[in-house]
Amino acid sequence: MDEARVRIYLDDAIEPIADYEPPVRVSLDTHELADGEHRLRIEARDRSGRLGVRHVPFSVRNGPGITLSGLQADSLVRGVLDFTVNAFGAEEPFEPRRAESPSPIPVWLWVLSLVIVAWAAWYVAVLWKPPPEFARTPTYAEQSALGH
Question: Which one, 9, 39, 76, 145, has the greatest CB density within 10 A?
Fold first, then answer.
């Protein structure tokens, strides 16, 4: 064998989608593929006849983006399951109610908010001193009299 070849197969196809002499630039139109997992198998044969094989898994997502709130992958569930599904495609006109998926406020944000409020309350109660020009006004005079 005196000719090097590169053959590219899609998924488990028997016939290659490309058969060229290397180097080669290949264009694969994914609009013709179903959304989901796919795999390229690239076979390269050198001039001495040795074969090299490489598998490249990839995912296609040409359809609308799908978001799911209330259920995660591999969850263990029982009873009644409530969840929200939204789908929005890039070619669709922008509509905020459809383009954004509603989701609950994350717990970490609630915790951070409570920490900030607690710190502010502690600061006001313990460390905050009114400026000298306001210290003798009725609002602060009563507070300082109670504190001493």
Answer: 9
Characterise 40 by phi-psi region: left (phi > 0), alpha (psi -120 to 50), beta (else).
beta
Residuewise pLDDT in 10s, the chain (148 residues): 578 899 999 999 999 998 988 888 888 888 888 988 999 999 999 888 899 999 999 998 888 877 777 778 888 888 888 777 777 776 766 666 666 666 678 889 999 999 999 999 998 888 777 777 877 787 776 554 555 5
User: Which amino acid appears at position 137 of this protein?
Assistant: T
| pTM, rounded to two decimals | 0.53
Question: Cβ contacts of residue 40 below 8 Å, gap of 6+?
Answer: 8, 9, 10, 55, 56, 58
The domain ranges of the chain are 5-60, 65-99, 107-147
Write the CB contacts of 53 (distance below 8 Å, at least 6 apart in sequence).
41, 42, 43, 44
Contacts of 60 (CB under 8 A, 6+ apart): 30, 33, 34, 35, 36, 38
